[in-house]
Structures are given as structure tokens and as C-alpha cells.
Design goal:
Layout: E1 2-11, H1 12-21, H2 25-29, H3 39-56, E2 67-71, E3 77-81, H4 83-91, E4 94-104, E5 107-116
Antiparallel strand pairs: 1-5, 2-3, 4-5
InterPro entries: 4-PPantetheinyl_Trfase_dom, 4-PPantetheinyl_Trfase_dom_sf, ACPS, Ppantetheine-prot_Trfase_dom
Enzyme class: transferase
EC number: 2.7.8.7
């Protein structure tokens, strides 16, 4: 059963300027591995984290650096959650998260679907 959806759209150039103006922002938003990526990929991951928070219905217990977007061998993006963020997701009964990312024409978008077992 779908228990939440979230979508977020990010202007890549604007996001890159924000990172340049606030150098420590990347440390607060991204894992060390993610910080090595190009700005368009960071923008997509930022959108994914925002979309996840929307799918969860809020940010209680969620910490940005405990959310990492990691690709499967096929390239499909996947959430890797840790710490209080993983507990917050489990506490909501969420058993599966689906993530889609894209970037084109200067924009990055992410769409998240959160699922739980059984009927609500």
C-alpha cells in the first residue's frame, strides 16, 4: 500500500551557486561519497532527499547525511538510510522506498513512493 509520495524539482545552476556561496552546506546535506559528484548529480540527490521528506510527511527524525543515494549495479538509484532516519522510516511502517531521478535542461527532479505492507 502506498503511504506517501514526494516530488522535488531543483534548478541546477541556482543550486550550484548556493553551494559555492555556502561551502559547508555540502557537508550538512551529503555523505562524503556524494560530495565527490558533479553539481547536477548533487542537485538530483538534494531533490531526492527533499522528495523523501515529503513522502514521509515531514522531517521528524530525519538527518540529511543519514540519507545516501547509491546506485545499484544497473544504475538504478536507491536510498541507503542510517541512524535515526532509518528508524523514522521503519517507525512509519514503511517497508519499501521507490526513487526515480532525472536531470535535463538545467533542472533535476526526483520522485519518491513510500510503501507499507498490508492495508492502512
Amino acid at each position: 500500500m502506498i503511504v506517501g509520495i514526494g516530488v522535488d524539482l531543483v534548478d541546477i545552476a541556482r543550486f550550484e551557486r548556493t553551494l559555492e556561496r555556502t561551502p559547508r552546506l555540502a557537508e550538512r546535506l551529503f555523505s562524503p561519497t556524494e560530495r565527490e559528484l558533479k553539481p547536477r548529480s548533487l542537485a538530483a540527490r538534494y531533490a531526492a532527499k527533499e522528495a523523501l521528506i515529503k513522502a514521509l510527511g515531514g522531517s521528524d527524525g530525519v538527518h540529511w547525511t543519514e540519507i545516501e543515494i547509491t546506485p545499484e549495479e544497473s544504475g538504478r538509484p536507491w536510498f541507503t538510510l542510517d541512524g535515526t532516519t532509518a528508524r523514522a522510516v521503519a517507525d512509519k511502517g514503511i517497508t519499501s522506498l521507490h526513487l526515480s531521478l532525472s536531470h535535463d535542461a538545467g533542472l533535476a527532479i526526483a520522485y519518491v513512493v513510500a510503501e507499507a505492507e498490508g492495508a492502512g
